[in-house]
Amino acid sequence: MRFRLTPRETSFYDMFAASADNIVTGSKLLMELLGADSSARAEIAERMRAAEHAGDDATHAIFHQLNSSFITPFDREDIYSLASSLDDIMDFMEEAVDLVVLYNVEELPKGVEQQIEVLARAAELTAEAMPNLRTMDNLTEYWIEVNRLENQADQIHRKLLAHLFNGKYDAIEVLKLKQIVDVLEEAADAFEHVANTVETIAVKES
């Protein structure tokens, strides 16, 4: 690791870790949604909104710290990118849950559970990786695995689209379900953006 002559603001590490832990909370709510009937989904959506607001607060705290810090642990643009991408994940997960409730979806198509399982695994890996930003150790396997998971998510998404367009659903239902699975795919993409940013930071710091 590169030797530094100046002190670094270390609270960023804790804030990134808190943001990632909140994403794990969001992924667990997505998993809970799968097993819930329509009457329970509104309450899950309310808890997801609370988690999304907590994510917003965490992101704003990082931006505030960034604007008030003379010295940062790594490049300012990378801090901004990492915080923004973490926030995007929560936004997409919250949107997916909200759409399920707003559209009164009776049954999610087969394959959505695989999408959510991928997101849950990516959330766990991201939460495990954030504390390692302090030392930049043990991060390579993280971004390799998240990129693999994103590729897996792409395949699941394509199969879901093929299923939705097989003629078994009416046109309105297809539009509703497609929007939900598309947003879940965007969440997987956002996890990859986080991993790519971490890789960029690690390369710069090596």
Ordered list of secondary-structure elements with their pairings:
Layout: H1 11-34, H2 38-68, H3 76-102, H4 112-129, H5 140-164, H6 171-205
Helix pairs in contact: 1-2, 1-3, 1-4, 2-3, 3-6, 4-5, 4-6, 5-6
List keywords for this structure.
206 residues; 6 helices; PhoU-like_sf
Protein model, in words:
It is a single chain. The chain is mainly alpha-helical and 206 residues long. It has helices spanning 11-34, 38-68, 76-102, 112-129, 140-164, 171-205. The termini are close together. Pfam families: PhoU_div. Belongs to the UPF0111 family. InterPro entries: PhoU-like_sf, Put_Phosphate_transp_reg, UPF0111_domain.
Terminal Cα span = 5 Å
Shape: globular
In N-to-C order, the SSE pattern is HHHHHH
| Class computed from helices, strands and strand pairing | mainly alpha
Poorly predicted regions are 1-7
Q: Estimate what percentage of residues fall within beta strands.
A: under 5%
DSSP summary: helix tally:
6
Whole-angstrom Rg? 18 Å
Main sheet attributes: strand count, strand direction, barrel closure = none
The residue-averaged pLDDT reads 92
Topology, number of strands: 0
**Range of helix content:** over 70%
Family: Belongs to the UPF0111 family.
Protein name: Phosphate transport regulator
Organism: Streptomyces ruber
Pfam families: PhoU_div
